[in-house]
Write a structure and sequence with these properties.
By secondary structure, this protein is of the alpha/beta class. It has 12 helices and 7 strands. Strand 6 (210-214), helix 8 and strand 7 (239-244) form a beta-alpha-beta unit. It binds thiamine diphosphate (TPP). Thiamine diphosphate binds next to helix 6 and strand 4.
Amino acid sequence: MFLGKNSTEQMGLEELTSAYRLMALSRRFDERMGELNRRGVPVPHYHSGIGQEALMVAAVMPLRRTDQMIYTHRGYGHLLAKGISLREIVLDLFMKAGGTNQGMGGVMHVNRPDLGVPGREGAFGSRFAIAAGLALAAKLDGRDDVAVCFYGEAAGARGILYEALNMAVLWKLPVVYIAEHNGWSVSSRTEWLYPEGSMSRVWRGFEIPVEVVDGNDSETVFTAVSRAVSHARAGNGPSVVEGLTYRIEPHIWKDKAAYQPSEEIELWRARDPLLRAAKRLIEFGAGKDEIQSIENWADAEVERAFAALETAPDATWDDARRQMETQ
Ligand SMILES: Cc1ncc(C[n+]2csc(CCOP(=O)(O)OP(=O)(O)O)c2C)c(N)n1
């Protein structure tokens, strides 16, 4: 069962330019963190999202500010696209004051409830039920907001998916699940975890709309998720979009990823979502200088975020308590 194909939300030059800015920022930040790590600078526990930027960013762009979004641990594109600044993310990562959790949650628990980012679980799986709960809250309050829940191969293999989806289908909850099919779950291939190597196959039994899309093509992702969001907002219940992408970097940097064949990585590098978006921008009429100026802007933003880190004080429990009292 597929979502109504006659729904034609598509990216124009403006949307694709916005997507490219956010994807470039996410990429530059991952590259900078990798560089620091290679130089031996102590960096926090980190999961690089290189290669997955289109899925992270273009799937969030159809959302409103009040729509809820549960992100994954890999990459920061989801958060940037929902309006959280790189400065806040960096301060959270390095556990400084001035971020979103005042140094008390690290990057696992970036949250901005005012932007529809309530945070996320540390032990993967409960996100399926949390997202269904957020959708239920919107429905009970009479808001037409939706909840969007990204998940990886590991979370999707847990039993709570079935419990949550059963309730979401029963109560027609406005929730969209987005599977980040990136080929690997630490050192296990997706094919070793799911029949037919399909993360969305299990959803078919619920007879809800399922779309499998090229997760490295921002326009395709945007269109599919826009359709899923409209479906949920119109009161038609849950759906799933599975985006096919690839984890270019190791699970974490201390993992040498000897299990990951270099030819496979090269194959996917050639499908780089940024290169593809840049090519499309040129087809839309953008100049090479415009693309370069976006790259320059992203570099400068990364500089600004790290500059904030230089002066930020360490967070204290008092900062955290004050923040909790104001939320
Ligand atoms: C219940 C639970 N078990 C284990 C972990 C530790 N853990 C963190 S990331 C990860 C792998 C995630 O793989 P996947 O979902 O495929 O996402 P990817 O890292 O490929 O983006 C694991 C097992 C966890 N957070 N929660």
